[in-house]
Amino acid sequence: xxxxxxxxxxxxxxxxxxxxxxxxxxxxxxxxxxxxxxxxxxxxxxxxxxxxxxxxxxxxxxxxxxxxxxxxxxxxxxxxxxxxxxxxxxxxxxxxxxxxxxxxxxxxxxxxxxxxxxxxxxxxxxxxxxxxxxxxxxxxxxxxxxxxxxxxxxxxxxxxxxxxxxxxxxxxxxxxxxxxxxxxxxxxxxxxxxxxxxxxxxxxxxxxxxxxxxxxxxxxxxxxxxxxxxxxxxxxxxxxxxxxxxxxxxxxxxxxxxxxxxxxxxxxxxxxxxxxxxxxxxxxxxxxxxxxxxxxxxxxxxxxxxxxxxxxxxxxxxxxxxxxxxxxxxxxxxxxxxxxxxxxxxxxxxxxxxxxxxxxxxxxxxxxxxxxxxxxxxxxxxxxxxxxxxxxxxxxxxxxxxxxxxxxxxxxxxxxxxxxxxxxxxxxxxxxxxxxxxxxxxxxxxxxxxxxxxxxxxxxxxxxxxxxxxxxxxxxxxxxxxxxxxxxxxxxxxxxxxxxxxxxxxxxxxxxxxxxxxxxxxxxxxxxxxxxxxxxxxxxxxxxxxxxxxxxxxxxxxxxxxxxxxxxxxxxxxxxxxxxxxxxxxxxxxxxxxxxxxxxxxxxxxxxxxxxxxxxxxxxxxxxxxxxxxxxxxxxxxxxxxxxxxxxxxxxxxxxxxxxxxxxxxxxxxxxxxxxxxxxxxxxxxxxxxxxxxxxxxxxxxxxxxxxxxxxxxxxxxxxxxxxxxxxxxxxxxxxxxxxxxxxxxxxxxxxxxxxxxxxxxxxxxxxxxxxxxxxxxxxxxxxxxxxxxxxxxxxxxxxxxxxxxxxxxxxxxxxxxxxxxxxxxxxxxxxxxxxxxxxxxxxxxxxxxxxxxxxxxxxxxxxxxxxxxxxxxxxxxxxxxxxxxxxxxxxxxxxxxxxxxxxxxxxxxxxxxxxxxxxxxxxxxxxxxxxxxxxxxxxxxxxxxxxxxxxxxxxxxxxxxxxxxxxxxxxxxxxxxxxxxxxxxxxxxxxxxxxxxxxxxxxxxxxxxxxxxxxxxxxxxxxxxxxxxxxxxxxxxxxxxxxxxxxxxxxxxxxxxxxxxxxxxxxxxxxxxxxxxxxxxxxxxxxxxxxxxxxxxxxxxxxxxxx
Length: 1108
Prior knowledge:
Blueprint: H1 2-10, H2 12-25, E1 45-55, E2 64-67, E3 75-79, H3 86-98, E4 125-134, E5 137-146, E6 149-152, E7 159-162, E8 165-169, E9 175-176, H4 178-189, H5 193-200, E10 201-202, H6 206-212, H7 215-226, H8 229-260, H9 272-283, H10 289-355, H11 358-494, H12 498-576, H13 606-655, H14 664-740, H15 750-820, H16 824-833, H17 837-867, H18 875-938, H19 948-971, E11 976-980, H20 983-986, E12 996-1000, E13 1005-1008, H21 1014-1035, E14 1039-1041, E15 1043-1047, H22 1055-1069, E16 1074-1079, H23 1084-1087, E17 1091-1097, E18 1100-1106
Parallel strand pairs: 1-14, 3-16, 3-17, 10-15, 15-16
Antiparallel strand pairs: 1-2, 1-4, 4-5, 5-8, 6-7, 8-9, 11-12, 12-13, 17-18
Helix pairs in contact: 1-2, 5-21, 6-21, 7-19, 8-18, 9-10, 10-17, 10-18, 11-14, 11-15, 11-16, 11-17, 12-13, 12-14, 19-21
């Protein structure tokens, strides 16, 4: 459908761009292929409810069954007092199908649906049997749904929240999987819950609000019903893409400014124009394309100049570099030759000095050798001393251990005798302890048993007293609670008319809101009237000013024309006047005073006169147009003034206000004050009713809780009486057990028995401790004797080897003395005077001396070879020439580097800016195209404020009004029909594409729907609701519903209008649709014979059919 509508709304070129955008982004939800619009499946299936079962649901306590096959007629009345449970029937039907009840403004689900008129043990549910007829075949489905509810625990006390569940029985008797049941039900009905509410239920006030709602509010409602959110997503997508392009342009501008700041120019004033362009571009918000073109041309010229200068400097740089390298090489060669001459002189001098030290180093070599030999002898001497000490130590240990061994044997025999004596003493103490323990434990057990029996007796006696006290308290508490319950029930009975007063207040509140809306309409009409009066006054003033200007310009034109004609006549006459010839003007033959034109008087030309005539003609034409516009404006002002006066009179009559001689603003202020007083009264009444409602709910909840508490108190009292008997029996048993605890007294008391047992135990422990100590000493003595024997054996086996080693070391020591030709006194003196390290230090010093002499000899030979046949150079002159060449090279190098940096930076700037400018031009074109599309689709253009979604929804609204007006004309006896604002006015000022007006065939005029009376508004809203239901089923449903409920609104109709409405509804139901009217209006009972009567008592709501 969008592809058909777009060309009419936007033109072919714009529509083509939008269709491309749609195909690109796949806006169509479930369709996967690009650009494919899902089709609506239409069938002729019919869905009809057959039976509804309720239990513990809302206001229904016991199980209730409503059989929709019982009525003889298709139109029936659901009748009952306010609050009796009429609307709950539709709640249950919707809950069974969708798992939620009522409308979006008052959602109920879960435990809120559990009835307060049924015990918590009774499971709540709603069960619906419905048929679906496909051609000649009828299939029966049953859906059973249990809400989330609270039930008592099966074991013990307390409650548990039970999750909701659903069961769907198919025509063949099988059960559909629970997880898929909700999806299957939506598939069977063919409507979402929101659509079902619009098709199957005309709820209290909802369509009245839709009738009077503004276009923006209607658009949100239609979006959900007809799935037009696609078009909103389309405009959002266009806006997103536009913002993306704008961000891209902003980013390019930022990047380009950043690059522009990198411009570098040579010093001097020849490039000042380029710097000025850079400064202007950096200071502007956007980048001017013309300035950027000038800047890029200047940048190209700068790059050409820099490249030419760079080529010249590179040539000079290479020449200077060669000269610098030559001077530097000559200086290095001279410096090396001078160092060679200096090296030869220094080496010869140093070698001569070293040769003078040769005798001293010979003595040092002899001392180094003597120190090394002495410390070799010292190490052998120390090993000899170690072997002598070890041999002496072994001999002393052997003597000591051999003498101590007999003493260990004698002490061991004495300790063994003591151990035997202590062992006998411990065994005797153990036997005595066993006898005392048996006797004492028997006595202790007897004492403790007696204590336990005594304690049990006292506890039983105390428990008996507490139980008797608790029983008395429970009886008093139950009496107190009974009194509170009776008092709460009396107060609740006093609030029994609360629902009636609440319904009365709701009616007054709706009427007050309607009066306030009418007052806002009056204020809006007054503002429009004031604006129109101001505009009419401005047009009159403009007309007066223009009339004066026309008169002035016309006078000026006439004077100029007269002067022109006079001048033409005078010139003609003067040119043809001759003495004796007749004047061409007057015919006179004499011409004594011919016409003379004053020099100071300006005579207009023919072209100037023509322009003056044209300007006067245009002013007169503008005068005529302004006159017509002022007349139309004045007429419109009079019409608005009459309409405003009429509306004020009607409003004054509705609020019963007195007519006064006040200004219009003062009169509206007085109306507002009166309505404000009424609203304050209603708000106070609402607050009082709210408090009473809360109090009633609190009392009901309190009575329920008190009943539960009383039941629990009675149960607790019975338990206490039972417990009292049990306590008495326990006391008798404890008393008998205490008296039976008599025993033979072996000890005066329990403490004496424990003390005797403790003494016996301590005596046994002491004997055991002394026996263990003796065993420890015996073990230690035996270990010491064994160790002594083992050590003596080891020493005797080690002595021969130690003696042989000592002799071997003495022989080695004496042999080394002879080999090194040193006596014991000499090597000891050397070791005492010198450290071992001195030998190594002297050897190192001798090596360094020899190495230095060899190195110097090599240096002398090399220096002589380098300087052979050459003179010593003048380094100062060579240094000056090198420094001068280096200075010239550095100056030119610095200039080259600066130029290279300028060239590199500006080349990079050019490479960065050129592609960005191309990208900027491309993005600007795309952004301009997207902005045009977005402003067009979103209604942002001046004089065209209607967006595409509203335009598409007008298609649905037009079809809705087609069906609605068939009923509205019939209900109003051909007086009225609903119309949309014309398309040419729908986007004027604001989006009014979905605003409705009512056309009167009596007056032949259109007026706002808000001006309809209460009965007329009800008929219009009812017709609109039926037309919308027809359109939803026609465009969305795969099943045609044969059921509709109408909830209230008939109370606002007079007798004739009510008869007309019932007749239309009866004709509508004659096509097979089952139509139920939910109302408490008594007159309907006379006009509709089949009635579903709903009553309510202390056990909840009940229903029964009354069939004609």
